Write the structure tokens for this entry.
Amino acid sequence: MLSQQRPEYLWIGCADSRVPANEIVGLLPGELFVHRNVANVVAEGDLNCLAVLQYAVDVLQVQHVIVCGHYGCGGVGAALRGDRLGLVDRWLDGVGRIREQNRAQLDALATEKERHDRLCELNVIQQVANVGRTTVLQNAWNRAQPVAVHGWIYSLEDGLLRDLDVGVTRPGDL
């Protein structure tokens, strides 16, 4: 009989097939609860993502929420260029707002690849903040439940994870 899952980690990552969460972090099935979507977005109205977050924090009692983006993300690239792809355009509106809020910083970079990579990082940073602002995390912290939110980025080129050093462990960190 299989035992009940008790992962310590929730992974919120991109749906990109080149970014297999368990393999990247070297954890076995049952050790990582996973939610994936285009461009690892944590949107206020996304009941799917919020339900996964609530279940992970309240029921599974995960101690770490990892928001992991990746360099070369197609969704982030589309938002950077303003591409019109269809239904996914609405999903990527938040990434477009991040682009606009950071236009000067992005425009100061020399190459399209540098702008794309930086927007991937900025997107992770924003999504970490979005997780921290959810009622799920606010309620957990209010009841002194230890939950940390981490922002990581994965490189398809070298296979390495990088910590963006934007961790949140309490409301004051936001």
Notes: The beta strands are 9-14, 32-37, 64-70, 148-154, 161-163. The CA atoms of residues 11 and 34 lie 5 Å apart. Residues 112-133 form the longest helix (22 residues).
